[in-house]
Amino acid sequence: MSQPELLSQDFELGFTYTRSTGPVVGRFLTDLRDRIIVGIKGSDGKVYVPPMEYDPVTAEELSEFVEVGQSGEVVSWCWVKEPRDSHPSAVPFAWALIKLDGADVPMVHVLRASAESEVSTGMRVTARWAEETRGFITDIDGFVAAGDES
Amino acid sequence: MANLAAVVGIGQTKYQTRRGDVSIAGLLREAAVKALEDAGLGFDDIDAVIIGKAPDMFEGVVMPEIYLTDALGANGKPMLRVHTAGSVGGSTALVAASHVQSGTFKRVLTVTFEKQSESNAMWALSSPHPFSPHLNAGAGGYFAPIIREYMRRSGAPYDVGIKVATKDRLHGARNPLAHLQLPDITMAKVEESPMLWDPIRFLESCPSSDGACAMVIADASLVSESPKPPAWIRGVAMRSEPTMYAGREEVSPQAGRDCAADVYAQAGITNPRKDFDCAEVYVPFSWYEPMWLENLGFAEEGKGWKLTMEGATSLDENGDIPWNCSGGVLSSNPIGASGMIRFAEAARQVRGDAGAHQVEGARTALGHAYGGGAQFFAMWVVSADKG
Question: Of the candidates A118, A129, A67, A69, which has an alpha carbon nearest to the alpha carbon of residue A96?
Fold first, then answer.
């Protein structure tokens, strides 16, 4: 029995948007452009990186920015064996949760290493900056094992 | 029987073209904090948060509610989002009210918003579909033929819409929160403005605004804990119908008439023009004032335009039933919030807290919102009297 013809059509829908970062995320991104990483102090005394606009416990507006270190410790990680086009690296890398010195919570970012075997929980890593910084999270090109940042 | 609930706090941002200084969360936060301050309360006094905005495609943030809990003090509390296109501000208020009236929560914070400067509302409203020509119509293009049909049936003079556009902007000039501030507007200026979607001119259309509106709704037992007079919620109703079906009455949708009949019956309204002191009604394009005057029973069919032309709906002409004293949607339109602004402004009137656009002695008011292809309706009746 022959199949009836089923109509289908490729359909792509796209719109353009803009985004305002506000005073807190905006400050974080602006400081990245100057190669500085800031967090914000919450009511519980913890330093949150990236900074949050509102306290996760009391919902109060937060404003006490704290500069944190550019090195830290890998809390957890996941190796990406076969990066896709949209990944920030053409070669295998790790997504890592990195607790920067002076921060109380880890931040997710790219960890660059030549092999999975070179990555471990607890390892010390340091930010490597992009050649040109623009106020994007990608101003941090990635983290590398401490001592390999140059 | 539902428990009695009241609006005990209202907060609005100043509506304007662009709020580039705040994030989306920051915009909502501003309205929420103002509403809590107005109610003499803090986030700890709130049991649940109900938010609303226009469709996700408008701003391109899918499910914004999942990142707004911190900003609205909702961590560890129930949070719910309501969607009903342009009427969402109204239906969000009603969902919030029903959570108190049902006895589920004692005090609810409800917030609606739109940051249209960051969105693409015009084309998100009129997206192309496979196998169909793209109309590129936008909202005005959709409603213009319905307005023309109203004009044909009623025989209304051509300048009724011009009168509404002028009147609502004069009202808006009394309201410091209104986006458009056009104290010198005249009917001649409206008439000279470019025709966008015949018969809708540029100045007969709503602006595109950034803004948020919030309210605190409390159970009757807690109303006295807030310092200002409450707006008692005396009736609540929603109705829906499909966008298109054979024989649909698009000029005066059945869902709108049914919704009004329901909310009036709850509040004991028998003659809306007489029983209400004022109304805040969703009029994004000027001609919707006479159309809704009829749909909502303020005038007989075909005669709504006469009320408008006589000045009955004008604060400046001492009309007996002022509509949209705040300036209405024609003066401020952050879409997701626009319906709630109607509901909140109705409440401000009966609380005696509407500033320079206060209707003297207002005790009972209607808040109204519509959305989609004039297919979702949300209404409430608020009163200074407990009933």
Answer: A118
